Amino acid sequence: MNDLKEHDLAATDSADRPALPAEALAEALAATQAELEALRAELEETNRGVLALYAELDAQADDLRQATELKSRFLAYMSHEFRTPIGAIQSIARILQDRVDGPLTDEQEKQVRFIQTTSAEFADMVNDLLDLAKVEAGRIDVSPAWFEMVDVFSALRGMFKPVITNPDVLLIFEEPQDVPKLFSDDRKLAQILRNFISNALKFTLHGEIRVSAKRISDTSVQFAVADTGIGIAPEFHHAIFRDYSQIDSPIQKRLRGTGLGLSLSKRLAELLGGDVSMESEAQKGSTFYVTIPIRVAAPPCADSAESPSS
Predict the structure, then answer these.
(1) d(Cα 117, Cα 128) in Å, to the nearest integer?
(2) Is 138 helix (H, G, I), strand (E, B) or coil?
(3) Are 294 and 308 in contact (CB under 8 A)?
């Protein structure tokens, strides 16, 4: 009996509760659909904005590539055109220095030496610009071959012997430590070391410049050029391998240069599969390092051109 009463009460409550009108359901559904449409429209607008942004970035990247290519072409063209007059100036200076047309007075000899020094500096600047343009344009290829490091050191020693005019500075080449034959591009490696040594000579007024090489792993060799020069303050370390970077010092103000030597060295080291680094402290000298693999990656034809034992 009680069960029947509870059933009747539940039925009465259900009947008394007002049903949700169909119009209200339709309005709620329409509102939800409108909200979804608004969200879809907003999403589509956002997607269009993202696509427009990507298109703008692509256009800017194309403009940047074109500007870089034009800059590289200009540098390559101008550097190439500069070489002819520089060569002529150097040849004339050599003729005058050899006194082919007669003796020179002391003042004339001084001026001829100035011409030779200046033209050599100019030639170095032009070569740096030309090499940088080639690297940026991707026109420098690695030509690896097997070579002994002692031969590279010997060539560098002979190259710098006539240009070291400061008797207070010694250039020392240490015996390579456990360095095997290398399969790499010896000319590019020599160019990196030449840039390091040239910089050390500029900023070392007394003491020594020590060039060394040692094997640091089964696959890599590290070269170091250490000097007792003016050193580099910590605030300049981050920018030392950037293009056109130069040290703010009294010596730098008396020297000419493009500030490209270290930047070019970094890029050449990367072409050889290696990297560069440095340690320095103001007034306590600097050490510049280049680390390269013992065997650079090369096409099979170049790799098999010569064996280590040959």
Answers:
(1) 17
(2) coil
(3) no
Residue type, 161: K
Distance (Å) of CA 46 to CA 39, 52, 56: 10, 10, 15
Which amino acid is it at 208?
A: E
> What's the pLDDT at 9?
47
Give yes or no for residue 13 having a pLDDT over 70: no
280 or 12, higher pLDDT: 280
* pTM > 0.70: yes or no: no
Q: How far apart are CA 136 and CA 73, in angstroms?
A: 10
Report which of 115, 126, 129, 120 is spatially closest to residue 160, judged by C-alpha positions: 120
Q: Are 184 and 272 in contact (CB under 8 A)?
A: yes
Q: Give residue for tokens 């074109």.
A: 66
Q: Report helix, strand or coil for 182.
A: strand
* 179 in Cβ contact with 149 (< 8 Å): yes
Residue 253 CA to residue 228 CA, distance in Å, equals: 19
Show Cβ contacts of residue 237 under 8 Å, excluding neighbours closer than 6 positions: 278, 280
End-to-end Cα distance, the chain: 113
Side-chain-side CA neighbours of 205 within 13 Å: the count stands at 7
Amino acid at 187: R
Which has the closest alpha carbon to 210: 233, 228, 222, 198?
228
Residue in this structure with the two tokens 């610009």, named with its chain if needed: 129
- The span from the CA of 267 to the CA of 80, in Å, is 21
What angle separates helix 186-203 from helix 261-271, to the nearest 10 degrees? 150
Per-residue burial over 23-34, b if 16 or more Cβ lie within 10 Å, else e, is eeeeeeeeeeee
Specify the 3-state DSSP secondary structure of 40.
Answer: helix
